[in-house]
Amino acid sequence: MAGATQTDRDCYCRIFREHRGCTQTGAPNATTSGSCQGPILTEMLILSCSSKLQLLEATLRRLLPETLQVHSVVMNINRGNPAGHEVLVDTWPEFKAILTRPRREVASDDADFYTNTYAAFYRDLGANRALLGSAVNWGQAFCILGLQNGVYEATRDIAKAKAVQLEASRFFTYLHPDPSTMPEIRLDPSVRLSSLDVSHADLLNETWAFGGNDNSRMYLANLIRHFPSVCLLDAAGRPVSWIITDPFGIMTHGYTLLQHRGCGYIQVLLNVMAKQMHTWGYPSYCHVAVDNYPVQRLQERQGFQCQPNWCHFILHNAALHRTPTLTPSPATGTAPA
After folding, report:
1. Rounded distance between C-alpha atoms, residue 297 and residue 330, angstroms
2. To 10 degrees, the CA torsion angle through 238, 244, 246, 251?
3. CA 156 to CA 164: how far, in whole Å?
4. pLDDT, tens only, 290-337
5. Could you give the domains of the chain?
6. Where are the alpha helices (DSSP H) in 196-264?
7. Is 118 helix (H, G, I), strand (E, B) or coil?
8. What is the value of pTM for the model shown?
9. What residues have CB less than 8 Å from 75, skipping those under 6 apart?
């Protein structure tokens, strides 16, 4: 696996032997007996041990940016944040595929694709297909995020075999290499910097293009309750602009009320949020719609770098009843000036 040192490989072997109950040295295998003899077979493992998750986090960090979503989920788990996800790995050789999925006790509503969210990273497309086929609950509404070529095609093929309909969109991913270098931006004296409160969930739900229902409100309230957010409040203490983060570490749901646009508020909040995430050790990144040219230019002015691979949001919602499509999009760097 590219980026893996001999120390990494030794750790993988030790983790695998511990999981299988092996005490011998040498190349382990994933047989049902747990012996260390015979051919190596593929096996899926749910990681729950803190030492294993810490080793996985270190490995994923070395493989950024392709691992962004899965890496941030593992970071949240390791730091005690209730990401509501569990980590599944194809255990040998050297974590060929990794998938985060909602914990069963969290994802209790089969119609709630806001909560039933997965993120996939793989070194082997076949192992990724196996994880997607076995670990995803295809009877639920769900969303799968992936930052690699092939993740949409793999999901589409499985969906076709299961007679499941999908809707897919592609986004640009913008990552800042070092937010500590971002210049300070002066704050408009008519507003003050704060964080969101759960009481603001209704406002976010009303203004979010994918919101407006009970599941989306609950989802937004949970994000506000458990993950970092930043907002600007007017003189009456009402939010006029905001950015929140989610279990994947994405700076997302940025929005400014119509009557307050043109003041540069999102630029201020993006600057503050990126620096804070960087201070905590998280990558500072976000996704931007392919036709949102103003925000693309804003990201570039602040030093964010557009990543070469598309980020795919793959949605299964029984209410869609549409054939799989991909949103038409221009090539990277072709946004009009």
Report:
1. 15
2. 170
3. 9
4. 999 999 999 999 999 999 999 999 999 865 444 444 444 444 444 433
5. 1-41 (no CATH), 179-316 (3.40.630.30)
6. 201-207, 214-226
7. strand
8. 0.81
9. 57, 249, 281, 282
